[in-house]
Amino acid sequence: QVQLVESGGGLVQAGGSLRLSCAASGSIFRLNGIGWYRQAPGKQRELVATITSGGMTNYADSVKGRFTISIDNAKNTGYLQMNSLKPEDTAVYYCNADATTGSVFPLRTGSYWGQGTQVTVSS
Q1: Which pLDDT value is given to residue 16?
Q2: For 25-49, how does the pLDDT look when each residue is reduced to its tens digit (9 = 90+)?
Q3: How far is 122 from 106, CA to CA, in rounded Å?
Q4: Integer Cα distance of 26 and 114 in angstroms
Q5: In whole angstroms, what is the distance from residue 102 CA to residue 88 CA?
Q6: FRET partner for 47 with CA separation of 20 to 30 A, picked from 26, 37, 90, 111?
Q7: CA angle at residue 6 from 79 to 12, to 5 degrees?
């Protein structure tokens, strides 16, 4: 199994910055990718950004140019640097990891979620 621990959320004024971290632990053979999603009150969970272990990234249009996703394969940790934050970025941010687990064959690949971290941007 894989456990994800998110950190870095908080309250920030509009225009400010936050950096979210997602640390994966457990019987990880390989971290294949990290994704960040968010869910605002009364809205569906939406994709924010994803990154593969090879560094390929994808961003929601609403965060392009403001957010940067990165991954440290050695630490099994993903990051989301959020700059120029807006009140509409307020949400619970969730980390998702695609990981291959196990120490002996057959290995398993699965998708795992963190518990979420609150980001609140005041105007």
Answers
A1: 98
A2: 998 989 999 999 999 999 999 999 9
A3: 49
A4: 13
A5: 40
A6: 26
A7: 75
Tokens of 79: 């990051």
Residue 105 has pLDDT above 90, yes or no: no
Neighbours of 78 (CB within 10 A): 29
Q: Which letter, b or e, does each residue of 105-123 get, where b requires 16 or more Cβ atoms within 10 Å of its Cβ?
A: eeeeeeebebebbebebee
**Residue that is written with structure tokens 């700059």 in the block:** 83
DSSP secondary structure letter of residue 102: -
Task: Provide the pLDDT for residue 113.
Answer: 97
Instruction: Please tell me the total number of residues recorded for the chain in this structure.
Output: 123
Percent residues over pLDDT 90 in the chain: 91
